[in-house]
TrEMBL record:
Pfam families: HATPase_c, HisKA, HisKA_7TM, PAS_4. This is histidine kinase. Signal peptide: none annotated. It comes from the Archaea.
Amino acid sequence: MASSLSTVALAYYTLPAVATLLHAVLGYWIYRRHWDRAGAKWFVITLGTGGLSAFFFWIYLLAPPVGVKRALFFPIVLFAFCSYISFTVFTGRYTGSNFHRHWLVRAAFAIILGGFVVLSLFRPAGLYTSNVRLIQEPITYYAYEVEAGLGGIYLLIYLLGGYNIYKLFVYTLSTSAQATRQLALLIAAVLSVIGITAASEFGLFPAEHLNHATYATILFNVFATLALFRFDLLNVQPVARNAVVENLRDPVLVLDSERRVVDFNEASTRIWPDLDAHVGEPFEAACPTLAEEVDPAGDDEGARLTMPADGRDRHYSVTVSRVARRDGDDEWLSVLLRDVTALEQSRWQLQKQNERLDQVASTISHDLRNPINVADGYTEILQGMIDEDGLDADEGEQALTHLDQIQTSHDRMEAIIDDILTIAREGKTVDETNPVSLATAAKDAWENVDTSDARLTVDGDCTLQADRSKFLSILENCFRNALDHGPHDVTVEVGATADGFYIEDDGPGIPAEHASNVFEYGYTTTDEGTGLGLSIVKTMAESHGWTVDHDTDYDDGARFVFSEASSEPVTETPPSVVE
């Protein structure tokens, strides 16, 4: 019997030193390897304060009964309470719920620490401890009865521990399989401390009146060691449902294998305020409007619908994802409604703008052309009348000169109308493109322009994704610009670049004072030009998503560089010349 008691006593005196060592080793290892991980600092604080409590408890057991032993009660309990509080903060940070920031939890922290310090200093009767007595079997320690004040603090500690278990359990159910074992070990660690401490209160250990919380931390460290070294506790933080899905601004529904609504996030209640009452019901019954538009079993990827939310209609894009459960026996579905109201409003505005452009083009085409045609008709009549009436030579010549000027103005107005119509109708964003050869398009565009004695040189080739008709218009307008402002035998060169192409000529170039205005509407340096040619070039380039710039560093004429064009180089070919 004595031998048995001696073994028990040896265990009681030795295990606190083991607990202290485990706290120190684990805390140092985390500090060295995982200090930057989520929650690592608070886990180290938990181990540090718990280790200090275990150390003072070990000294308490070895100290003589008189004086020192009773004085050590304060640091033992204070550091133990700090350890429980820091682990609560760790749990909140590690799971991403941050419940430790709630005012009730913070109030509990303040009551635990502040209340214990006050009770320890003043030791009011009936609130701290009573019936303190020295026990010498199987080891020497002080026993005491816990009074109401200290008992309330102990109760708060138990409530914190229970809440930690609850939060870890909830996140175990809602997080990925990768983190399940980590969380299970953390739950086991907390349960071991609570369970052993509660068992010691019921006198289930040899030292019936001793608080065995320090011995419980050995199991806590064992489970923490497994979680750290076997399952990378601090390397992977759980991606919990409440931290991600619940905080999404877009509604999310979860359907089981029988297409019943089994879960949803808070955003869903903006559309279906009473959705909580329909959990477990078929999808068609819980969300009838959505079910009419979307078939979860079919392929409704990207379906769009309009539903009321927060008192007004909103537009949603619906995405259905299939999720295989871990057992593999059935398949669940998640239905995500992406709010695209702003996008739909922008699309509506763009549609209205396009309609207005079409109206402007129609007005220009009909309402302006008709008066011009009428004026042209009267001009012809006047020409005939002048010829018939036989005005004298001077008057007739002057009248014909004026009529020619009127006709020239009409022709210029016709050209401007054509260019404006081109900008209005062809300047819309290109929806469909096809592979187009730069060299082939350049030669075809050259054939569409009256080039006289000018020459075209094609230096290299590439394949562009473009609307061929608009691309030809870009080339033709650049060619006309070179022909209108250059000599009759100007040479125009087209070539490929790393992200597009260039068009250059050996004409007089663009004066420096006009270099920044060449793409402005109406800008021209001749009386015959409309000033819209290069504006059309820029508009059509931008409709492809390209940019066009005037190369001011080019000194041998004018050079325009088109960039951000999706191009693929073609096998290098020698330059070709088109007369």
